[in-house]
Amino acid sequence: MAASCACANLRKAARVTTQLYDATLRPSGLRATQFTLLVATRLSDTAPVTRLVNELGMDRTTLMRNLRLLERQALIRVRPGKDRRIREVVLTERGHEALARAVPLWRRA
User: Fold this and answer.
1) What per-residue confidence (pLDDT) applies to 4?
2) Closest to 45 (Cα-Cα) out of 74, 81, 72, 71
3) Domain residue ranges in the chain
4) Nearest Cα residue to 89 out of 49, 53, 59
5) What span, in angstroms and rounded, lies between the C-alpha atoms of 73 and 52?
6) Which of 1, 29, 89, 91 could disulfide-link to 47, CB 3.0 to 4.6 Å?
7) What angle is formed at CA 18 by the lines to CA 101 and CA 7, rounded to 5 degrees?
8) Which fold has domain 2-108?
9) Phi, psi (5° rounding) for residue 12?
């Protein structure tokens, strides 16, 4: 039954793809998930957390855990927005540099 289960096959394909990108990105120090978050943040000057949740299809808890890791690495800053209820994600200079190193690797994958 597993061979004919679309859900199981899609999940396996996603895992294999993630492993491929993780291995390819390894020299940059980023994982595929981190790379995706940095790219999504870079596409706008500031990225509200809610928009990242919706665009990336991640639950808020998982997203925040990943953002905290990137913030500890000084690749992003999470700050209050103009409306204090909104948290915005901003790429730091170090984050821009990390992306510059990672993009050529990502393209090779």
Assistant:
1) 83
2) 81
3) 2-108
4) 49
5) 19
6) 89
7) 155
8) Arc Repressor Mutant, subunit A (1.10.10)
9) -65, -45
Angle of helix 60-72 relative to helix 49-56, nearest 10 degrees, comes to 120
Which of 23, 39, 51 is CA-nearest to residue 109?
Answer: 23
Residue 56 CB contacts under 8 Å (≥ 6 apart), including other chains:
36, 37, 40, 63
pLDDT of amino acid 29: 94
Q: Are strands 87-91 and 47-48 parallel, antiparallel or unpaired?
A: antiparallel
Which residues are within 8 A (CB) of 59 and not within 5 positions of it... i.e. 6 or more apart?
A: 53
pLDDT tens track, the chain, 109 positions: 567 899 999 999 999 999 999 999 999 999 999 999 999 999 877 889 999 999 999 999 999 999 999 999 999 999 998 888 889 999 999 999 999 999 999 999 8
Choose among 29, 20, 14: nearest CA to 99: 29
